[in-house]
Design goal:
This protein is mainly alpha-helical and 347 residues long. Helix content is 62%, strand content 0%. It has eleven helices and no strands.
Length: 347
């Protein structure tokens, strides 16, 4: 089954000349306006065309600026003001991510031109990427404290992709996923580590779980039975989104652990396939609701997506194609009926 991600996670632009950056995947860099010291730099009247380098300590777009935000988040966390702590950590994460991306760009631009500059920017890119991941981890812990596992899980997976599961921060991030019940295979193996072999019991109906997706599908069935098709479409769209996110996250974990621990890789591959199947089932039912609402323009794209994901030879793929045939979007039936080719040749 093709379970390619339909809703990509935050990605990063790799540097082919820096091998170590294959372990780093920062969030999308967006040049946003950040609050900070915007006072103009004094100009030397004796040399007005040259501005001397000045300290960046007072600028928010600096390592010091990000660290100040982290300190403010620590103070908020100690005071149990978790919402404030989360806001400060998100801002610090954005600062470090922008810095890392900017330093990567400079490294790439100076590669083969001036090794001094290139090496310096590479070092700073790695340093700020590490700070970004540490901030992301603390933000995930804050979301746990706020009982928001659906916000913590994506952050923890990003850390594992960036850090590699064998590094300390990657291990800590995976342990958090284990404690949340998002994964059920411990890493490292229990005989190599004292961590428990059974994940703790966690609520099954969190916003980002198979159980939540199943609940939404049941609610959609009830709405269809009551002929409340608009409600059913909304519930199925939400269910489809849950399963798609889960499938993408499990795929990311499968890829991250490939060649490292086959137990984890196999488990995550199985989870990815299971949630992708559920996503496609929710998508098929959503297309039927759109047909009931006389919205073929919404049903057709969903049916085509199912065929791409499932393959036309699988049952759900065949059912999706049959819907396209009934809608008149395609005019060749599949599979062929026995004897159809011979009868057509006689004509």
């Amino acid at each position: 089954m093709n379970i390619a991600a339909a809703a990509p996670l935050i990605r990063f632009t790799s540097l082919s000349l820096i091998a170590v950056f294959s372990l780093l995947s920062p969030v999308n860099a967006q040049i946003s306006q950040l609050p900070g010291n915007t006072s103009p730099q004094p100009i030397d009247p004796n040399n007005p065309n040259v501005l001397s380098p000045t300290s960046q300590n007072n600028s928010l777009l600096s390592i010091e600026g990000g660290q100040r935000l982290m300190q403010e988040s620590d103070q908020a966390f100690s005071a149990q003001k978790y919402d404030v702590a989360a806001k400060k950590l998100q801002e610090a994460r954005q600062v470090f991510n922008q810095l890392s991306n900017f330093y990567q760009d400079l490294n790439s631009s100076f590669s083969g031109i001036d090794n001094r500059v290139s090496d310096s920017q590479r070092k700073q890119a790695l340093e700020t990427a590490q700070l970004r991941d540490e901030t992301t981890y603390r933000l995930a812990l804050t979301h746990r404290a706020l009982n928001q596992p659906e916000l913590a899980v994506p952050l923890l997976i990003q850390i594992i992709k960036s850090q590699n599961p064998t590094r300390d921060l990657g291990k800590k991030a995976y342990q958090q996923l284990f404690e949340l019940g998002f994964v059920d295979v411990p890493y490292p193996k229990p005989d190599e580590n004292n961590s428990a072999s059974t994940p703790p019991t966690t609520p099954n109906n969190t916003l980002l779980s198979i159980e939540k997706g199943n609940t939404l599908m049941k609610e959609a069935d009830e709405a269809v039975s009551a002929q409340r098709y608009d409600v059913a479409a909304k519930k199925l769209q939400e269910s489809r989104q849950v399963f798609n996110q889960l499938s993408n996250f499990y795929q990311d974990l499968n890829s991250s652990f490939s060649g490292i621990d086959s137990r984890v890789t196999d488990a995550q591959r199985k989870n990815a396939l299971e949630t992708a199947q559920k996503r496609d089932e929710a998508t098929y039912r959503l297309s039927l609701v759109h047909r009931a609402l006389n919205q073929p323009e919404l049903a057709v794209p969903l049916l085509v997506q199912i065929i791409k994901s499932q393959n036309p030879t699988r049952d759900l793929g065949k059912k999706a194609y049959q819907q396209l045939f009934e809608l008149g979007f395609v005019n060749s039936p599949y599979p062929r009926k026995p004897g159809s080719s011979s009868s057509s040749s006689q004509k």
